[in-house]
Design brief:
Tumour Suppressor Smad4, 42% strand, mainly beta, 2 domains
């Protein structure tokens, strides 16, 4: 049998069940439409869609967990809120709403009255669709780059959710987030289109709009780069992202927005000019 990752779930009465993690995007919550359903009869404190798991490629294998609920998720071993920072340190015992944590083998989460233990031993997302690459960049405590962006917009038959781990661009590394597009209508095979306004095209990279069936969703990669040039200038830049499907849902669109901060970039050149009539290497006494 081909090996696979899994999450073992224990309810308040000690009942256990292991769920395979074969997809690159997994949703956990009390709503029956989730990939993994935590039934209210077995435990309370779980939102309809509480946790989103996004596969992280590389070694060791892992998933990035996003808390979509309105309550904290308790953290156990083998998980980090920031690169190199154990989640078991006193100040980081919980994952706040709209925050993320990277999970590796042995990670434990507390979701309401449920306990989740992750067994991650093979590359994440085996058997799923395209892996969403994620890179975590550590930032000093209290810096602006720790400000996250998360916004959700539902408009009729179209749903759109934005997640960015930080809103301040990094000079050396791209800031990588995701756009989750949802088909909330009843039209099959809908082609969604994504548009971003507020930054030049060379400042960002956005994956193509997905094709979705009813009640389906997909995460699309969104990556921002520091321009390292005079324009656009340093400072705050409002960014708006629009999802629409003109063929299937004409006149409808979902819009999310955030403010991206471009830090000041210094680039200096030093040139030596030798006056006419002066020979290089000459000196005066």
């Amino acid at each position: 049998m081909e090996p696979f990752n899994s999450v073992e779930i224990t309810d308040r009465d000690g009942w256990r069940r292991a769920y395979p993690l074969r997809k690159n995007l997994v949703h956990i919550g009390s709503d029956p439409r989730n990939d993994i359903v935590l039934e209210p009869g077995r435990g309370a404190g779980v939102a309809s869609r509480h946790l989103q798991l996004v596969a992280i490629p590389g070694d060791p294998p892992g998933y990035r967990a996003i808390n979509l609920g309105n309550t904290d998720v308790s953290l156990g071993v083998a998980s980090t809120l920031r690169e190199g920072t154990p989640a078991t340190s006193p100040e980081e015992q919980a994952l706040p709403p709209r925050s993320t944590v990277n999970l590796t083998d042995g990670a434990r989460l507390g979701l309401g009255e449920f306990s989740l233990t992750f067994h991650l031993t093979v590359p994440a997302g085996i058997g799923g669709s395209e892996v969403l690459p994620v890179e975590t960049v550590a930032a000093p405590v209290g810096s602006r780059s720790e400000e996250r962006a998360s916004e959700q917009s539902d408009s009729g038959d179209i749903g759109l959710e934005l997640y960015l781990p930080q809103t301040s661009l990094d000079l050396e590394h791209p800031v990588e987030g995701s756009l989750t597009v949802r088909n909330l209508g009843d039209k099959p095979g809908v082609q969604f289109r994504l548009e971003l306004q507020g930054l030049d095209a060379d400042c960002y990279e956005m994956g193509p709009g997905p094709i979705l069936f009813p009640n389906a969703e997909r995460a699309v990669l969104l990556r921002f780069f520091h321009p390292r040039k005079p324009h656009p200038g340093a400072g705050d830049h409002p960014v708006t992202i629009r999802a629409h499907a003109p063929e299937a849902y004409p006149g409808q669109s979902a819009v999310v927005s955030t403010v991206v901060h471009i830090p000041t970039f210094y680039h200096h050149e030093l040139r030596f000019l030798i006056p006419e009539g002066t020979q290089a290497g000459s000196s005066r006494s």
